[in-house]
## 1
Amino acid sequence: MNIFWHIGKYTLLMKQVFTKPDKQKIYYRQLFIEFQNLGIESMGIVAIISVFMGAVVAIQTAYNIDSPLIPLSLVGYTTRQSVILEFSPTIIGLILAGKVGSRIASEIGTMRVTEQIDAIEIMGINPANFLIAPKINAAMMINPVIVIYSMMFSIFGGWVAAVSTGVVTSADFIKGVQLDFEAFTIVYALIKTIVFAFIITSVSAYHGYYTEGGALEVGRASTKAVVQSSILIILFNLILTQLLLL
Amino acid sequence: MIEARNIWKSFENRDVIQDITVSFKPGKANLIIGRSGSGKTVLMKCLIGLMDIDRGSILYDDRNFSSMNRFEKKLVRQEIGMLFQGGALFDSMNVEQNVMFPLSMFTDWEDEQKLERVNFCLARVDLKGVNHLMPSELSGGMKKRVAIARAIVNQPKYLFCDEPNSGLDPQTSLVIDSLIYEITQEYHMTTVVNTHDMNSVIGIGDTIAFIHNGKLWWTGDKETILETDNPEINQFLFSSELTGKFKSTLQKQK
């Protein structure tokens, strides 16, 4: 029963979030602040993880090719497919659930326990819309950009690892990367990314918004936000893959 | 004027507010006093609509606030200023942005006009040259002053103060009390102050409502409270050694 109670409460919160902003100008300003907070500030960690992720995929693929009948361009092909279909959207989604999710839950949770949310409400402003809507919308817009950026860095990482270790030539790797490309794989990855962005921001905001108590509870809300977002990402990864690829 | 009529509020079958009927007059500092856990904070949260009441009604100048829909409540709330116990300043904004926030949300003024009003309000609470400081850089008393400036920037008709002196030294408390009192009279606001500070009771209590175990136990003002024989009030006001001596001095003078 408890899970249904939370789903109901979460749905009611989302109903409050997706209403007309009290002031459009302030909403757009908040949206750009969130592009910076949730997107631009995550670029560094995403680049580092992506390069190493791509490098590992390339080396592992090369290691598993035993037969001389299999062309070495397969290393580039496998790296591209793995990165686009799974590693960039899902692994980066999980990384962002930790980084962005904990930030959102602790920021909103602290505002709750220090009565800042009450102050917004007393002024006659819808706090759920004012605080949460720009975060959800910004993440849903900026995360696809981050994931495309991650794909580029991952393929670059794979190329560097493959060429520098000498397992594949640069020409073979690039040939593999360009082989049999289907644009739908990118669409599939971006759909997943947008759904994951919504899960990360809305679940984290929910936990922050209903925090009660003090600093200890803010920490707990932050942990719950990361754990539940991660589980939901994995669950929706399976659901979306079934729906879109089969 | 703000009126509460026969209001009830309970949590898990425990009546925290029981049949309270009280009115708060404009141009006066109306105090709600009582021991910790007596229900005064819940009463204030019910008055401003942060908690829904179970029964009764709350009226703002004869407008039934408790039966209003969300949009109507929103309009009334734009006439309310609130000073929270900890100030509730927005951590991500500096002093100027904090005070300007209600103006940015509810007016179409030019930036210059807004800044002029912000500086006026900051000067009114005796704060100058702090516009670009962050809340974390302010002392407790300064935070309260900034919060007062933010509460009055939109010229509200009603001002609520939740324990404005908590965490402040006696001298700063007096400054905050006199500031609230002056502003109340200057703008003819209906001010409701939730406190358990003896100095506030004696200093600014134009009307006083004493809450005990969730019930309205006594009403009066700063003159009559010192003369009442009500045992619960005497226990509340004169429980410390210092206030006990004050009471006996008063009795000797009589």
## 2
Amino acid sequence: MFFCLLLLWLQNPSALAHEDLKKGLELSQKGDLQSANVYLEKALKLDPNDVEARYYLAVNLYRLAQFAPAKANLERILRAKPEMRAAILLLGAVLEKLDDYRHAIRLLESVADLVRQQPEWIAILARCYYHTGLADKARATLDWLQPAGPAAIFLGAETAAQSGDLGTAERLFASIRSTYPNRAQLGYELAMVQYQAKHFQESQATLQQLTEAGTRESRVYNLLSWCYHRQNRLAEALAAMRQAVELDPAAETNYDHLAQILLEEGRYADATEAAEKAIAVAPKSSTAYQLRGRAETGIGNFKLALRSYTRAVELNPADAGALLNLALVQAKLFQFRDAAGSFEKGIARSPKNPQFYEAYGRMLLENGSDAGSNEARAASLLEKALALDNQLAGAHYEFGKYLLRQEKVQPALAHLEAAAKLDPRDSRAFLALAGAYRRLGRNAEAAEQLRKFKELEAMKNSPAPPE
Amino acid sequence: MSPLAPIRFRNVAASAGVDFVLENSPSAEKHLIETMPGGIAVFDYDGDGRPDIFFTNGASVPSLEKNAPKFHNRLFRNLGGMKFKDVTLEAGLAGVGYSIGAAAADYDNDGYVDLFVAGVRSNHLYRNLGNGKFADVTAQAGISRAEWSITGGWFDYDNDGLLDLFVVNYVKWSPEIAPFCGDPVRKLRAYCHPRFFDGLANTLYHNRGDGTFEDVSVKSAIASQIGKGMSVAFADYDGDGLTDVFVTNDKLPNFLFHNLGNGKFAEVALEAGAALPDSGRNISGMGVDFRDYDNDGLPDIVFTALAGETFPLFRNHGKGEFRDWTYHSRIGPLTNQRSGWGIGLFDFNNDGWKDIFTANGHVNDTVETFEAAKYKLANSIFANAGDGTFRDVSNDASADFEQARAHRGAAFADFNNDGKIDVVVSALGEPAELWQDASPDDNTWLILKLHGTSSNRDGIGARIRIGNQYNQMTSSVGYASSSHSGVHFGLGTTKQVDRIEIRWPSGIQQVLSHVHTNQVLQVTEPAK
């Protein structure tokens, strides 16, 4: 009898759906979200109106970062059951992930009481406010975390830091200094925020407190190194980064950062060595090869740099920076056909990256073998670069120079003025501007531009670098 | 493209007996001086009407002593028929120290061309005694100096009839200053960039007319500018009758010293648009020539530089303004991968348009390890198409013209009196080349040899017009070199020139009429 009843129950679609739902929930709880969703979807096939199954499916999809299907499921739920506040809350969170911040805010504000119950929801709403420029509201929302304790405040501080509200982040991290259980973690995050806020000395002090208290973490010494570097304390920066390397010799990052610091200091030979070590620990790292290429370029060994950038591109063909550097070094080595190929590839892969257009245009203007057609192509590339980003000083400068060469002095002037305004440290724009003004007979303005040019050039006259 | 009159050259150095090898003493320490010698002076030292050749030479490093005959500077007497004889010792020109450049002119107006030799921490003035011998009069003349000079240039800045001396100084250097440059990781040493050395001001000596000179560098404001001078050329770019000075600098803006006429100069290169190419980058300015390339009556500037920098051409647009014409003239793409030293704007095919000859080679003997640039290069000839542009005709010159060497100085003259401009070129560690202009004889020519009376004896600074062509008497041409052999004009198919106008430095205007072409014309400055 029991067996028959069970058979009947099992053949009932609703009962079967319930079984699938149950199984799906079990698997969800175990963290096997993919398998859970198979059951939840089976349940929904049997009973498409099963709001519960659909909701849990949406939850899992959210957790699996499949935000578009999560949104579709939640919207379907809310069409059937607009009062379901849990779905509203989750949809708000999903929309935040889909960058639809205004819609997310509307939904989350409508269930503010639910939001306030969980620090994670509070953080989501705060992020939405930050993204829409409502920083005050974001800060007020993060204040809801205060009663939830140090862990929640830590989350709030992270949220503020990620949103670039470094002052709030620093304030929140500092407020839990005595209560947050993981002092090392807190100290590091606080120091990172201080570093990002360019409070290098404070960041350094925070990190030193950690090391003095016995923290021996590679990342702490790494950040400490950057703090010193930004304060022009090279010896200490190098010592700290070497400490970071010692603590985690298998980590590529520390070698990369060591190379970066050395590159910024113009110590190309040492940078090469650091990049070589990065390559040794991470032979598949495009970044490490790029750093080596930069160091080799600094030394002036363009042939080696070509090899490094070629490898960097092989390892990560999607890396626009590697491809751009490859194109530039090819041009430097007079491999104009190859460079053109790299630029074209870069444009095809990153059609919205104006740097490819700018550098390609410059190369054609400087090295063209067929003046007419190359110049026309160069001009169109520079125009495209400016259409993508009108704030590119280099593209304005090159296009202005091109127009000047074509005796189109007035439009040239506009571009050169833009270049000088956008990058007032680049002396070349002032020299070109002087030429343009001179052609227009505006001699006083020409003289003024030359004065600026000379001033900037004088500032460049520094002693010879160490190598 | 319409065909241009061909330009052909053949190297006759061996058959001519010009067996000079430039000894630069390359060392493991890569002393910067080793990259720089090779200046040549072409001048008629014995007054026989045939231009002779003087080569500067290096010395031992680091002693800077010419402690073996191979380091001697060398003078080759032109015997005619493209034959030369080494007369160095009898002329007393073997020299001392590490010589770099030379400048020839008759500074004492005695009718014999004298010689200034610049070098590393030791410059020398050799007075031509008129008997085939020279006397070192450096000390008496008051021009001793212990800096590193690249070359000198003779011009009469105050038009007093006496040639003054402009000395181009490079950087502060001593053998003890030998930083490691290059790739320290791979222990590849290379010659250092000039930024590792402090620059120097140039020197201007005023000729007192009694065999001595006054250093007027400060007084004239020439010394107000610190540079890293490589070469000098003279021309009156603004037509005010006063000779102006253009100096190329190594990785610094060039100088254009505008002659103010009161014994002072104003450095106006930036204002005039001649300091830097349009790129705004400091480049390695090397040899220079300062002549009218497009027959508009205004002297233009063209100079050599290193690979990736092009050989810039600044066109004189009048009213004191130059414009970077490197790309308009097509010289930009033609030279972008070349590195050059010596340069000269001469009409090699006598078609009425001045062409460009460049002596090529890179500075750094290890450059090929680092860059695509080549260390040893063939020389180049760019033919003036007559429409403001140039064409590379180097490959048509001859098979042996493709000889790649580390060329340095170049000097220009018609050595065999055929009316075509020949070129003598030096190369580090290798035999000098004597390029006989073997272009077809279809076109006509004139060479004017000037004899100043009120003006300086050489007529240096005189400006000459024939038809729409302009040229001036100067001996400062190219890198560290001097070409003192009259003023040459290519005249196409013209058999007789209707009118030659000469403006002498004294201000005297002279007109010659109905002059037959294909001759060396001796012209004496008339009385006022």
## 3
Amino acid sequence: MTPISARPDPAVLSRLYLSAVLPCLTDLAEQDGTVVDDLGQLRASIVFSILGGPAATIRLQRGQILWEDGCSRNASVILMFLGDHHLNAFFSGNKWAAPLPVWGCWRVGLLARFSKLAERLEAVLDGAQQVLDSAAGRRLHARLSLITAGLALHALAQGDAAAQNILRSLPPGLASFTIAGEPRATVWFDHGSADNQVGWGDPPRRPDVCIVFADIATAYAALRGEIDTLAAVGCGQIRVEGLVPLAEGLNFAMERVRAYLKH
Amino acid sequence: MDSNADRYRRSHELFARAAQVIPCGIYGHASPAAALPGALPYYADRAEGCRYWDVDGNEYIDFLCGYGPVILGHQHPAVEEAAARQLSKALCVNHPGPVMVELAEYLVSLVDFSAWAVFGKNGSDMTTWSVQVAREHTQRRKILKVAGAYHGIDPWCTPGHAGLLDEDRAHVHDFNWNDLESFDRLLARYRGDIAGVIMTPFHHPAFKPSQMPAPGFWPHIEAACRREGIVLILDDIRAGFRLDLRGSHACFGFEPDLICFCKAIANGHALSAALGRKELRVAASRVFLTGSYWNSPPAMAAALACLQIQKQQEVVSTLRRTGEMLMHGLLQAGAKHGYAMLASGPPAVPFLCFIDDPSSRRQQVFCAEVARRGAFFHPHHNWFLSAAHTPEDIVATLGMADDAFAVMRNEGL
């Protein structure tokens, strides 16, 4: 299956939302002062769960946001979705796609604050004009795009036919993607490992290939598909060190994220 | 990297300009992204014999030979003289020149199973056309190829991922080199619908060691093709004329039905060729084949001269001896510094890599260090010997390699 021929798979998209988009809330809270102010001293947790499927938990802890895989016990609110389409419709902003509040539906204030948080995340990830108008907004957009694209590799490797086709042709190895000069701006993907592990932060061992964006501006342009990345490598704006074919192939696989999230 | 910035200043300046007006700056196999960005030259200025000079004036003993075409050495006087003589008469006219006939006759006399020859400009021209001929001849759809093998840039075979449709490869299926079970599985699954099997004489994937055919591998493939009426296409673009002037199949004891040549055919002049059995002649005549420059006589004159010189000077033997000297010396030099290395591929088209170097980092540092000392090895692509490499050039190269290994060892790499 080639990227042009492959249509986005709803099951992959729902996993992207749960395991690649929602984790960005952590960085959003760390980097965006307005979010911290909005959260205040709030302590609560919200579960997003697909009936009979995967789930993720968001914990709001006094200005911090933590993401956990799976359905946490003692959650303040549990939002249930009937299937992938339901969750995908909710995350893409369809009003009719309200989740089933199986627990905590009376916590209207919490849900309203989360809704505001989600709107901010969406604006940053989508690259809304008011976000991109400022250097700080562009920085945030680049960081969150990198985190999403990196973490998305797990879901893409598990279920997207086009990404799987690309990955099959690549050598196994651990790849890391970093924005130079930025704190906590590294994501990694262990291609060929059991369960295709991904992570945000320091990789578990020395990567077989390191892809380093020289600065935020380069990362911003590269992650938006606005620059010729091969020319950028030749110019030194993107440094690729190590297992070159893995880097090149993962670049194509990560571009599948845009095909999914634009829907 | 600072010293590299000085060493390759002009290359980098040109690349910065190129990046403004040329996609990738340099695209394809010569893209810096495919080699060592910043640590190898990007642009060449001139070349002669087994040496070339980059635009910053750095000199290299060349073990890539323009990615293979240069078999007699850069600017070989007799080849250039033949091309120039033809050029003085005609470059691009309405009809082919007599040299096209002479070259076809010469090639057919060289390659024992062949009865006819056609010409193009690049390897892809010939591999893609050969696949069509196989389909036309058999009236079948499927093409079998080896996973990871390079056969060109057309959609059915490009190693790239962009701009492709599922339909482009709907009838192209991969098996694994030296894995007859995987071949037989495809044979069974698509029996009666397989038009052709296209393979290189030995497996030379980028970024990996080359693999020679295991005993029995080629005979099994050949027998299956004969039994099933499948056209066996030998993609000899890369190795052709370096292993055997009759075609690389002569080295491995089998006969294809079609053979594709390119790189070493004209010592750097743009020409490719496909030769085939007489049984495929009608199909070959039906599959349309042309290009704006494909009848241009100078490259054909260069090819005729190049092939005749190869035969007269027994270039195949020279390349083997020189390649053996190089690879033996490199293995020894590596071992002296404590590096276990793997020499793969035939000596004339060799590749060397470090054992226990899955990320290729040692390989990359080694090639960068050798380049700084004056010899060019590609870190990810097999190398090429030319008849212009003398034993003295190999000795000089081994000295550079020894220094490079010492630097690596001192730095704990």
